[in-house]
Amino acid sequence: MNFLESLRVSLRALKANKLRSMLTMLGIIIGVGAVIAMVAIGNGASASITSQIQGLGSNLLIVSPGQSNSGGVKGGAGSANTLKMEDLPKIQAAGSAVKAVAPSANKNVQVVYGSGNTSTNVTGTTAEYAEIRNVNVERGHFLTQQDVDGSARVAVLGPTVVENLMGSSTANVIGKTIKLNNVPFQVVGVTASQGSSGVMNNDDMIFVPITTAQMRLIGNKYLRQVFVEAASADMMQTAQEEITTALQKAHHIRAGKPDDFSIMNQADILATMQGVTQTMTMLLGGIAAISLLVGGIGIMNIMLVSVTERTREIGIRKAIGAKGRDILSQFLIEAVVLSILGGGIGIAFGWLGSNLVGKALKLNASMTVSSVLMAFGFSAAIGIIFGVFPARKAAAMDPIEALRYE
Amino acid sequence: MIDLTDIKKIYATGDIQVVALAGVDLHVGAGEFVSIMGPSGSGKSTMMNILGCLDTPTAGQYFLDGTDVSKASGNQLAIIRNQKIGFVFQGFNLLPRTTALENVELPLLYAGLGAKERKERALLALESVGLAKRVHHRPKELSGGQQQRVAIARALVTRPAIILADEPTGNLDSRSSEEVMAIFQRVHEDGNTILIVTHEPDIAEYTRRIVRFRDGHIEGDERVQNPRKAMPQVEEEKGAVS
Ligand SMILES: Nc1ncnc2c1ncn2[C@@H]1O[C@H](COP(=O)(O)OP(=O)(O)OP(=O)(O)O)[C@@H](O)[C@H]1O
Ligand SMILES: [Mg+2]
User: Fold this and answer.
1) Considering its fold, how many domains does chain B have in total?
2) CB contact, 8 Å: A2 with chain B?
3) Tens of pLDDT along B53-99?
């Protein structure tokens, strides 16, 4: 009997037991679907985090107050008050690898314009911020050096803030006066939409001169962060070393003592975050793979039951001339068809699931060809591995014993 | 055609040994029509299963059509069952949820024939047992007599050397029994070798030779003096849909 005939015999047997075939496939469907969806979501999260970090600016170093823990990941840093405006020129002058420097101090404020009212985060900074952090201005202009020097009460709004205040992000807001925590500011610019990536909304922001922010809104002289643009990607490490030396000198930190600041490197952050998401993806994929294994055991279980239940059928087939190998291929093909069909449906569900979750979390949950191939191969392998045992059992049956079976 | 020499079958269930066949010698020539009779438990089915290569003897030699079956491997036995033997069971043993046509095609499927030839031959076989209009019915949509005729068509479809039937009329009423025997008589007239097991003397009278069993031995072997002729035609199919 050739393969096509065996396939037809198997399909007929599966069709005769539709409900059971469906239930058997369910394990594989869920397993494959979960693997596909998990890997797709993991990849989407990883891509989104990567683009977020790259969107911070190019060749970016971030100086934060407080001690860093090893490995370059920000620990409890940021809470200490060790960075001040006076550090800024020292960082700028630290060496040739430092191209531009911008400070930042933040505060959440209540924003009021007429009857419009919203709450958002205000960043106090300087003109250099726009270049370092890739902020583009759509209308009006960004903060200028004069604004900073003169502690001007001017503000640059993100499009989301404009929309929240005036009902439309394109509303004419330049020259209008808004109130931040009851302090009036004149709007001088609106930034271009950067789009929101993940949990961070880059458009829901207000920029004011750092001097004004410290004086009128925050009430202290400390900086939350200093953003530094290195001269080039190759110069990142040099810039980091130069800034470290300069700040150690400025802060009178003796050799061997811990620094009271930390410098994060964009590449470090990227590597760390990618490592985290990769681990997460593998973890989720691993859990999903276990469910695939359980699905395989389900197939074996049902196939064993099926072999016992169809003992008489096997006896009849053998009595009229089926060889052991014919019976073996019939049951093996049944198992493989179940698992491949289940795998196919699982891929469809995985695709659907990753799309839905991707939409909900605003991720680009991309289903990779490799994960589809892997899931498919895996489910076929499961069909063979878990199908062989029951199929061999069926093939080894003695015809007369099988016929006598009640 | 069939040569049995000192065939023994001993079942060992636990400590007790059951001797089902205690040394059977039997010769059946080509074209014979033999019925096997004997009390319950005398070993008739055991011998039929051995003849049908469904079971193997504990001892003794079995030559079928010149080949020593006792030395054949499992695969070779499957080929012999497929090509040389047509077996008809008391309980029909059709595949449920499978049409008459597909049931009859099955031996040809295992013989490796193509779909077209399978269908042609299966239809012919079903026609020859008077079921041309029932080919797409499933076993449970057929009467007992019709099911047994499907089973006979399945046994005939490979044009085997011998046809073995273990109480083929055991589950049938007298009318269906006669139909079945009419088919066997016709097949015999076409030159086939047939062995049937039966409890009913009436049925045995349709055959040409009666072999009597008792306690695993052959006790008697006689010619039937005036074989009865079964009603040749088969019941008219009423309102049948093909
Ligand atoms: N699988 C088995 N295990 C043990 N003993 C068996 C087995 N099959 C048959 N026997 C025994 O072998 C003997 C012969 O059985 P067999 O089925 O051949 O009788 P039979 O002549 O066909 O009877 P019946 O007319 O009732 O069908 C019986 O005593 C039976 O109990
Ligand atoms: Mg019997």
Assistant:
1) 1
2) yes
3) 999 999 999 999 888 998 889 999 999 999 999 999 999 999 988 89
* Structure tokens belonging to residue B130: 């008077």
Residue bearing tokens 């319950």: B40
Main-chain phi, psi angles of A74, to 5 degrees: -70, 125
Q: Is the CB of B54 under 6 A from ligand 1?
A: no
CA of A401 to the centre of ligand 1 (A): 13
Nearest CA in chain B to A403: B93
A92 and A193 fall within a common domain = yes
Residue B139: CATH number of its domain: 3.40.50.300
**Cα A81 to Cα B178: distance, rounded to the nearest angstrom:** 109
A242 & A382 share domain: no
In a domain, A341, yes or no: yes
Rounded-to-integer distance, Cα B153 and Cα B163, Å: 11
Q: Minimal CA–CA distance to A288: which of A69, A19, A85, A28? A: A28
Q: Do residues A116 and A177 both lie within one domain? A: yes
Determine, yes or no, domain membership for A264.
Answer: no
Burial (Cβ within 10 Å: 0-12, 13-18, ≥19) of residue A149: exposed
Residue B178 included in any domain: yes
Q: Which two tokens stand for residue B195?
A: 């062995």
Nearest CA to ligand 1 atom 30: B41
Q: Helix, strand or coil for residue A262?
A: strand
B13: tokens are 């269930």
User: Domain range spanning residue A211?
Assistant: 83-259
Residue type, A8: R
Instruction: Say whether B54 and A12 touch across the interface (CB within 8 A).
Output: no
Assess if residue B2 is contained within a domain.
no
B41 Cβ inside 6 Å of ligand 1: yes
Domains: count for chain A: 2
| CA dist., res. B126 & res. A314, Å (int) | 23
Domain boundary among A200, A232, A259: A259
Q: What are phi and psi of B197, to 5 degrees?
A: -95, 135
pLDDT of residue A67: 66
Q: Which of A216, A233, A259 is where one domain is finished? A: A259
The pLDDT tens digits of the residues spanning A192-238 come to 987 655 455 778 899 999 999 999 999 888 999 999 999 888 888 89
- The answer to the question of residue B196 being in a domain is yes
Does residue A72 belong to any structural domain of this protein? Answer: no
Question: Cβ contacts (< 8 Å) between B81 and chain A: which residues?
Answer: 318-321, 399
Label residues B6-34 b or e (16+ Cβ within 10 Å = b): ebebeeeeeeeeebbbebbebebeeebbb
CA A61 from chain centre, in angstroms, equals 22
Residues A292 and A373 both lie in one domain: yes
Q: What is the pLDDT of residues B175-217, one digit of tens each?
A: 899 999 999 999 999 999 999 999 999 999 999 999 999 999 9
Q: Indicate if A252 and A366 belong to the same structural domain.
A: no
Q: How far apart are the first and last CA of chain B?
A: 38
Q: Could you tell me if B109 lies within 8 Å of chain A, comparing CB atoms? A: yes
In a shared domain, residues A137 and A245: yes
Cβ atoms of A263 and A236 within 8 Å: the answer is: no
Chain B touched by A326 (CB under 8 Å): yes
Residue B133 within a domain = yes
Residue appearing with tokens 């569900």: A349
Give the Cα separation of B187 and B31 in Å (integer): 10
Task: Assess if residue A58 is contained within a domain.
Answer: no
Cβ of B158 within 8 Å of Cβ of A321? The answer is: yes
Q: Give the domain range for residue B81.
A: 29-54+75-223
